[in-house]
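Budget justification, computational time. The allocation requested in the original proposal was used primarily to generate structure tokens for proteins on the priority list. As evidence of use, we reproduce two of the resulting records. The first is shown immediately below.
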Amino acid sequence: MFKRILQEPLLHFLVVGSLLFFYLSVNDTETKPQVTISQGKIKQLTAQFSKTRQRTPSKKELNALIENQIREDLAFEHGVQMGLVENDSIIKRRVQQKIEFMLNDSIGSIEPSHEDLQTYLEAHKEQYTIAPTYSFKHVYINPEKHEDVDTFISELKNKSLDANYKVLGDSMMLESEYRNITTAQIARLFGRKFAKYLDAVSLERWQGPVKSGYGLHLVQIEHKIPKHLATLKEVEIAVRRDFRTDAQKKAISAFYDELKVQYNVEVE
């Protein structure tokens, strides 16, 4: 029986395979690829477990996490050697994303100086133009409620609008007075024609009627801040955000430009 076992092809295969594996493990230590599970990676595995389970892992659970990570790394390294990763667009895209995330994080941690922000603002002035703002009062007239709307408007103009503008005219859902409101906000409330008309209205006297999406209005502009280029104080948060975004884009472009020099890139 023992003799028959020794003649089995499977046994021969296992013996030869074992000897070959032993030979390679002894004689190929210098070229053996390295797989390292760092302390940082162990902390990351522990944190992920704690976040999911709401507790720290036991020693047995942590060892299982580490063993699973070893298997994942070994499988990936072996897959690279087998050429499985070469044409896998999903894996390629994921690696690309991780590299770009690292670049973005490194740039995002840089704090630009006041001079950096001021220089960036001056180079991109068109992006930081402040729209005009208005402070105004108005009296609303609903044309459908008056047989002779022109006469009604004339009567309103002869009254003391400064003191009684809140109670004169017809009722509507909008406020009778607005402070420091932009043209974009005015357009949303009253319509674009109304907002555009305010650009041509002089200050501190009642004028109109001005048309809106609701009807007619008598308007008095008390204060206007014209359209102007922003100062850094006015838009510092936006400039700081845009500065970092541009810096990240430039860093990624520079990274790929440097990589292209190290490779022979051919597009068939």
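The second record produced under the same allocation is shown here.
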Amino acid sequence: MTPRLLPLDLERHGVRLALAAIALLIGIAGLVRLADPYESADATLPEAAPPPGASVLIPPVVAPPASRPGSVVSAQRGPGIFDDGRILVAYYGTAGTGALGVLGESPPDAMHQRLRLAAKQFKRPGRPVRLVYELIVTVADRTPGPDGSYSHDIDRADVRRYVEAARRNRALLLLDIQPGHDDFLDVAKRWQWALEEPHVGLALDPEWRMRRAVPGTVIGSVTAHEVNRTARWLSRLTQDHGLPEKLFVLHQFRTSMIERIHRIGPRPHLAMVQHVDGFGTPGQKLATYHAVARPGQFAMGFKLFYDEDVRRMGPAQVHRLRPPVRFVSFQ
């Protein structure tokens, strides 16, 4: 026979159930937070940009340890991309044309020899150099195209040529995405077949991530939420296929290009790089670099332009930059 619960017993029983329910909810919330502390509902809120001509006070930043720049988390055995103090040197562009950068001015093997000579100047004692081909695989367009995305993918056969050339020449290949109106993650998934290669990484170019505007008419932007989703997908892909650490690069030359950048977190298996792309005089480039650099989150990158830069900075000047640069690219 089941004993009857008196009113006081019922009250105590209800309190115990309520406390258990609260504990369960707290536990679930904690698990969600542990699962991804960098995802937040307000990650899509826009970042206010300073008005033109306004002075910007830049808080002091502390560079991460040289052995693990950018707070990179690596779960696999073996050295990461930056672990031996190396500096990466890249040519940037797309296949078959020099209109978008030096990479496409000549066939891959001929281009590699030119890149090798340019990169040799950046080598220092204890700072070996590794070559990188940064290939724009999704190109922003001024017309919507049949799918309305304002972008198009280059031919797979062209991408395969660079995949094979990078493997043959012991270089890294970086797939650069200019998505137009598409989401970065949706576009990245179309290139999964190439990203499954151990030497292939991913670069996002927010300048060409548009919401409604036509590419080239305004400077685009991306939310931290979209970056985090893309980085998390690439991290899982790398882990699932047992691949070595991959490059994950964010291009930037204005603070407004990456909204809520402080919410972008480190990812296992990815070497996170913030690549500063401003062109002009050395003074203008330094001002841009110091305005956007976040060395506590990322390893730092820096772009040199063959045509647009005025008195293009040399290797010695780049090496003197603080926070230190670990990835240099030429366009």
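A brief technical remark on that second record: The two ends are 84 Å apart (CA to CA).
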